[in-house]
Specification:
Mean pLDDT: 91
Oligomer: single chain
Strand order of the largest sheet: 14-15-16-17-21
Number of domains: 1
Largest sheet: 5 strands, mixed
Helix content: under 10%
Structural class: mainly beta
Number of helices: 1
Low-confidence stretches: 1-16
CATH topology: Methylamine Dehydrogenase, Chain H
Length: about 400
């Protein structure tokens, strides 16, 4: 099979599995992009950059870890001020970096959170008309893209030691939100225009809670919303909230969001870091029938989600070690250091994978049976910034958000 035909086949399989991929080129409307798989369809995504590549940089209000979401010329982000006691949603002009609008959505006593988390970690979601932001105890909020507040909803106390991090997903006029709180765990769907609750399905979550974002996938003729959890992956009907199947073969914390690709769902546990591939579809308990492979790992703790490029799937541990596997068999192909500590999830474009560590260094690799580093890029940060948001490519530029600054990078 020629390389072009191989990439065409991979693209067709990805389109079958990832039904949200129909967006204008350059838009990045939600966590991990149009198809929730970290992939950009653009042909001109920057590969190399340095301080001369900075088109603009903007100091952000407060601090946060939500990734930039882009639709047209608007960039949507969230932050927390006053040590989490104030939560804000804001919009930045993609061309200039100017903050177009900023709205405070909640003030109060902040919930407990982990030192590596915070109070503005969930990434916004937009359909180009509305934008939705989730803040755990700070509630979920809908705006139009010009900053007019449409609705707000209190979703509970979100007590627990880790804080909230699950990003919303927009499907057919509904916004689907994972609320894996310690007190009352559920998956929730609201009308994106009004905030009216359409369905709410309880989830059984052990006492530590959860942080994984929902992902929409195709399983044959059926669409499913799949959510990672502690020791279980669960599938739901996106329009009714009905539980379709569960897979209970997992050990440890289900922190990272599931990555779809090549007809499979790739699942990594936060701790101890075991790696799994399962097939979507089925009904009831699919633990025995739909597990494609399982690879035990002694890699410590993982937060980043995997990335699939061609026949390879790569995951990086929090301590900076990358692992590459064959997507079909789960065979480990290489294990190499990719940088310092990692929190953000990788992205992919034009057959390359991008890994940004917490210091802002991005290692770009060409996936294969051996590690091939294409570029190592740094930002002109002063060393005090922490980069835990994922990269966002859009219209020939790359956007990188630290806890303090939003960078727009060109070629």
């Amino acid at each position: 099979m020629t390389a072009n035909r191989q990439w065409l086949l991979v693209g067709l399989i990805s389109a079958w599995l990832c039904p949200t991929a129909i967006n204008a080129e350059g838009d990045w409307p939600q966590w991990r992009g149009p198809a929730s798989d970290g992939h950009s369809v653009e042909a001109n995504v920057p590969v190399k950059w340095d301080e001369k590549s900075v088109v603009w940089k903007t100091e952000l209000p407060g601090s946060g870890q939500s990734s930039p979401v882009i639709f047209g010329d608007r960039v949507f982000l969230t932050s927390a001020l006053e040590a989490g006691g104030q939560r804000v949603v804001f919009c930045v002009d993609r061309k200039t970096g100017k903050i177009l609008w900023q709205e405070t959505v909640w003030t109060g006593t902040p919930e407990a959170t982990h030192k590596m988390n915070g109070w503005a970690t969930a990434t916004c979601a937009t359909d180009g008309k509305q934008v939705v932001a989730f803040f755990g105890r700070g509630g979920i909020h809908g705006f139009d893209v010009d900053g007019k507040k449409l609705w707000s909803k209190d979703l509970g106390k979100f007590d627990g030691p880790w804080g909230a991090a699950a990003s919303p997903l927009i499907v057919d006029g509904l916004v689907i939100q994972n609320c894996d709180a310690v007190d009352e765990a559920s998956l929730l769907a609201l009308e994106v225009r009004t905030g009216k609750v359409v369905w709410q399905t309880p989830r059984q979550i052990p006492p530590r809670g959860g942080w994984s974002s929902p992902v929409l996938v195709n399983a044959g003729a059926r669409r499913e919303v799949v959510v990672n959890g502690e020791e279980v992956v669960t599938s739901y009907d996106p329009l009714s909230g009905a539980k379709l199947w569960t897979c209970k073969a997992f050990t440890g914390r289900g922190e990272p969001t599931i990555t779809p690709g090549n007809g499979l769902l790739f699942v990594v546990n936060g701790k101890p870091g075991d790696f799994y591939a399962l097939r979507p579809g089925g009904d009831g308990d699919i633990t025995q029938s739909h597990m494609a492979w399982h690879t035990p790992r002694k890699s410590g703790r993982d937060q980043p989600s995997p990335i699939v490029v061609g026949e390879f799937v790569i995951v990086v541990s929090m301590d900076g070690v990358g692992f590459c596997y064959d997507t079909t068999t789960g065979k480990e192909l290489w294990k190499e250091r990719l940088g310092g500590s990692f929190t953000s999830s990788p992205i992919a474009a034009n057959g390359l994978a991008y890994f940004q560590d917490d210091a802002g260094k991005t290692t770009v690799i060409k996936p294969g049976s051996k590690l091939e580093v294409v570029a190592e890029n740094t930002l002109p940060a002063d060393g005090s910034e922490v980069f835990r948001a994922s990269l966002t490519p859009s219209r020939g530029q790359m956007f990188s958000r630290s806890d303090k600054t939003l960078y727009c990078l060109g070629k």
